[in-house]
Write a structure and sequence with these properties.
4 helices
């Protein structure tokens, strides 16, 4: 009758969280994402908690959401989670005008971005997950 069920977007030993419409440029957000890639979940939380960057607060919230998703939705062990991916994407851009001399206008772009954090359970081997 209906469409068949879509396959899962990630493996059984992975959990993810997406933070959309974050009011910062993707370039600045990628600096924070680079600092947590490949770290364990606990190390990544510590890295973000003590980071001086303004955007590290919302990224920490997204990371904690991914950890909660792993624990509650996928029954993964939170002590063996590793940040497998932390990729940044471009979201919408607000276009504004700034008045300039002689009746001209200059464009101001206020970018939004999004970050996807994928956590992988390293205690499960690939054979068990498949």
């Amino acid at each position: 009758m209906g469409k068949p069920k879509a396959p899962p977007k990630q493996a059984e030993n992975e959990a993810r969280a997406v933070l959309r419409s974050l009011r910062t440029s993707p370039r600045k957000l990628n600096l924070v994402a680079q600092s947590i890639r490949g770290l364990t979940a606990e190390q990544a939380v510590n890295e973000l908690a003590f980071s001086p960057k303004r955007v590290s607060g919302p990224v920490l919230k997204c990371l904690r959401s991914a950890i909660a998703n792993a624990e509650n939705n996928h029954n993964l062990d939170i002590d063996s989670l590793v940040v497998a991916q932390a990729h940044v994407g471009v979201n919408m851009i607000l276009k504004r005008m700034n008045t300039r001399a002689r009746g001209r206008g200059a464009r101001i772009e206020k970018p939004f971005s999004q970050i996807t954090i994928v956590l992988r359970d390293t205690s499960m081997s690939q054979g068990e997950a498949a």
